[in-house]
Design brief:
The protein is mainly α. It has 22 helices and no strands. Helices cover 79% and strands 0% of the residues. The longest helix is centred in the N-terminal third of the chain and has 29 residues. About 3% of the residues have low confidence.
């Protein structure tokens, strides 16, 4: 959509407001999709939920590729948005549930890495298709996504179902068979099935025949345990998940990814070819840093990467704000300010994808207890999409009101708040089994209670 917007505006003559709505509607619909996806994943399983997301992508891509007018384009973008909501929830949850504790960071970050590769391919395809006729070029940019959508819908059926979901359904034999496929040894598989059964409230000596129908879970009572009467540990998990998803987009990444061509145009890059080439540079930076983060998540840890990433984002956003302000106020073209703007943008994207980007999806998919995982993660994704929609649909209005440099100073301030939130609210989860997360957050809750009591005593 980033590249297509340049040509859609030219052919259909849509206003800035219509561009903002077209960009933001995907995330509004993704919010709805993510909330529905949690219950769907608990009901039909993780694999079939991924297939459903792919079919929604397929339908949305075909509609956008057809795109005879703005209304059909909006409809296609909306359908694809619901698919995005499904996929952003289920991909990291599925990855976390089939992986072991020692490799979960690596495996769970692969969906985000592949999204980065997809964005890079999108930029490259935009550049190549931008040379076609106006009527055909942007439609192919959007419609070509139907090909990988179909491949995913069929390909996921060859993958094993989540063993943790199978245990919740009482299908212990099938769950053990899957764990034997995805574990390094039979002993590891036995240990994992034992821990999963305990987390699901099933006696470790219980066989499949002994599991009663009442023990099977399709998500009943989950919202009560999450929202109405959560335990202290679950409350902290929810705060952590909502907070990390909010700050992922409140720090401005969507403004850079979706409107990078406008940022570079403001900085002084004018031709369409050069605008599309500079966005390819963003895609390459994103993929390189995501690959790096993928290998460090299980070594360095989630929390350290988050703090390093967010600190770097603050610095690069301040530089970007300064350079764009200089360009905006200068009466002549300043080459140093143009180069500094482009470099600061690339550095910001690099730091984001070294930590906050991949860690958000790994962290929120691994912290919730088994019964609450899908629907707990769906709340985080809903907040993610709502924040994304707010930024993507208002960025043009924001920079028109406070200048484009001012907009990035604002994002720098929000990034500083994000750093403080991560430091005080997010415990380390590296190397912990999914079944250990309640203990990790119970300790966090206990420490917070002790601190509160100490402060209360001091006040008295």
């Amino acid at each position: 959509m980033s590249g297509a917007l340049i040509f859609i505006k030219e052919e259909l003559g849509i206003s800035d407001t219509q561009q903002e709505v077209l960009a933001g509607i995907l995330n509004i619909c993704a919010l709805v999709g993510s909330l529905v996806a949690g219950r769907t994943a608990d009901y039909i399983g993780r694999r079939y939920t991924i297939s459903l997301a792919s079919l929604l992508f397929l339908a949305g891509s075909v509609l956008m590729g057809y795109g005879p007018n703005y209304a059909i384009l909006m409809l296609g973008r909306s359908v694809a948005g619901v698919g995005v909501g499904f996929a952003l929830l289920i991909a990291p949850v599925y990855s976390a549930e089939i992986s072991s504790a020692k490799s979960r960071g690596f495996v769970s970050s692969l969906p985000e890495l592949c999204i980065g590769i997809g964005i890079l391919l999108g930029y490259v395809v935009n550049y190549l298709l931008g040379k076609l006729t106006l009527k055909l070029g942007w439609r192919l940019m959007l419609g070509i996504a139907a090909v990988p959508s179909l491949a995913l819908a069929l390909g996921i059926l060859a993958m094993p179902e989540s063993p943790r979901w199978l245990v919740m359904q009482g299908r212990l034999g099938k769950a053990k068979k899957v764990l034997l496929q995805v574990s390094d040894s039979e002993q590891e598989a036995e240990l994992r099935i034992k821990d999963i059964k305990t987390a699901a409230g099933i006696d470790e000596n219980c066989t499949e025949e002994m599991v009663k129908v009442s023990q099977k879970s399709s998500g009943e009572g989950v919202w009560k345990e999450l929202i109405v009467r959560p335990s202290n540990s679950v409350r902290w998990m929810l705060i952590a998940a909502v907070g990390i998803h909010f700050f992922e987009h409140a720090t401005g990444i969507e403004a850079v990814m979706l409107y990078s061509n406008r940022i570079f145009k403001k900085a002084g890059v004018t031709s369409k070819d050069k605008l599309l080439l500079t966005t390819i540079g963003i895609g390459i930076t994103k993929v390189i840093c995501l690959i790096t983060a993928t290998f460090f998540l299980d070594k360095v840890g989630r929390r350290r990467l988050l703090l390093l990433s967010t600190g770097g984002m603050v610095c690069s956003l301040v530089v970007l704000g300064l350079s764009l302000t200089v360009v905006h106020t200068s009466l002549e073209k300043l080459m140093w300010a143009l180069i500094l703007s482009i470099m600061a943008t690339y550095i910001y994207v690099a730091f984001f994808n070294l930590g906050l980007g991949p860690v958000t999806w790994v962290y929120s998919s691994e912290i919730f207890p088994l019964k609450l995982r899908a629907q707990g993660a769906s709340i985080g994704v809903a907040v993610n999409r709502l924040t994304n929609a707010a930024i993507s649909s208002s960025f043009i209005s924001i920079y028109n009101a406070i200048t484009i440099g001012g907009a990035f100073f604002m994002f720098a301030g929000i990034s500083m708040l994000a750093w403080l939130f991560f430091y005080f609210f997010l415990p380390e989860t590296k190397g912990k089994a999914l079944e250990e997360m309640e203990m990790v957050f119970s300790e966090k809750s206990a420490r917070s209670s002790v601190t509160t009591e100490i402060h209360s005593g001091q006040n008295v």
